């Protein structure tokens, strides 16, 4: 949900292009005429859904795109954005439902646009990707089959990226990137955004437990490249009918690679579990189905499994604290920023009240039931 390699989202870095300006960008940078354009919700970048006008030169190819304008802070790390763009292309070639990248008139994947705001000149990196079909998972009641499938796709994605090579790959080592799970202790400087209450007490406890019990075990986790943001708005699905007439869901789109960084396999599954809990009516049950799907590709080690509960709690804390902080910077974007907060605090509190042992028992028993072919 966030982007930018810096330690924090900074005020006034989010682009504020109008629809007219965004249309002009599509034409001047990518050589495509726009017939319709509308803004899409976003965290600290700016996205537009673009429909293009067919001309003699553009009779082939897609006619729906997403224009991505990176915030001015992220735009200072072009190497990182280049690697992320090449990962999207690599995953598509490997059979994943990622977007295609549209090249600029100069045959590049990105273009740096400078804008004079009066007081200063700001630069923004611009990309154009094909628009992917499907509905966000957030709009569909999750079933065990769908949760298992999402866990499987998450593991497969990380596993596939073991084979990805790029001369600038080291840019994914984002040391102080606030959304990397290993940087949970950095949340302490944003806690003031919560005020003084029970929520803040829980976050403080989670951060302390993270320092004591996770930081000391990082060297025992298996490293990989993480997508890092497989939330319920970044995974699109389409349904088809099974032989028995009921709906079977497939992942039809994976969006938003801006939070990619080096992490660990167990980070990816923890992040995915947390986001799949958000809209669920039975949030505690979710983890076992996602875990079973993930472990069908990458079985976790006992040390990784032992950290899972705390990592899920930690991701809740990241999302909830940074949303509260960002709301102070961008009050006009409050509705989008607070999506997780609607149920997130309640879910985190429930996990904390139940305790690690009870939650793990539910997750691990559910995951085990898949081995015998009986999903719970």
TrEMBL record:
GO molecular-function term, one example from the UniProt record: hydroxylysine kinase activity
Pfam families linked: APH (PF01636)
Subcellular location: Cytoplasm
Keyword Glycoprotein: no
Main location: cytoplasm
Group of enzyme by EC: transferase
Superkingdom as given in the UniProt entry: Eukaryota
Gene Ontology cellular component annotations, sorted alphabetically: cytoplasm
EC number: 2.7.1.81
Record's keyword terms, sorted: Cytoplasm, Kinase, Transferase
Domain (Aminoglycoside phosphotransferase): residue spans on this chain: 58-281
Classification via PANTHER family: AMINOGLYCOSIDE PHOSPHOTRANSFERASE DOMAIN-CONTAINING PROTEIN-RELATED, HYDROXYLYSINE KINASE
Function: Catalyzes the GTP-dependent phosphorylation of 5-hydroxy-L-lysine.
Protein name per Swiss-Prot or TrEMBL: Hydroxylysine kinase
Taxonomic lineage of the native organism: Eukaryota, Metazoa, Chordata, Craniata, Vertebrata
Gene label: HYKK
